[in-house]
Amino acid sequence: MASKGPRSKLDHETRTRRQKAVEVSKEPCRPKAHWDHVLEEMIWLSKDFESERKWKLVQAKKVSIRASKSILDQATKGEKKMKVLYKHQLELEEKKKKALDKQLDFLLGQTER
Hints:
Protein name: HSA domain-containing protein
Region (Disordered): 1-27
Strand content: under 5%
InterPro entries: HSA_dom, INO80/SWR1_helicase
Radius of gyration: 46 Å
Main location: nucleus
Subcellular location: Nucleus
Structural class: mainly alpha
């Protein structure tokens, strides 16, 4: 029981014969039939559909992100317009106030004479 190898020459020969019998014989190459081409195209088409599905999901995510950004941009544009209008109104009021102050000073100067 010390050795784990074949016990006899006969045992070794029968093992090699069994292994040779078990080995699959190689078939010769056969020409492709119509069905082989159909199967190849089905495999290609399934991969194509899968890749197109992934691509469309990516594109849909990009479009949704752009749409949400544009909505946010429109809201911020409205706020910016309001701020700009407010600043313009302040500047206009300041100019009017300066003009009225100047006119008041002129009138006061004439009445003092």
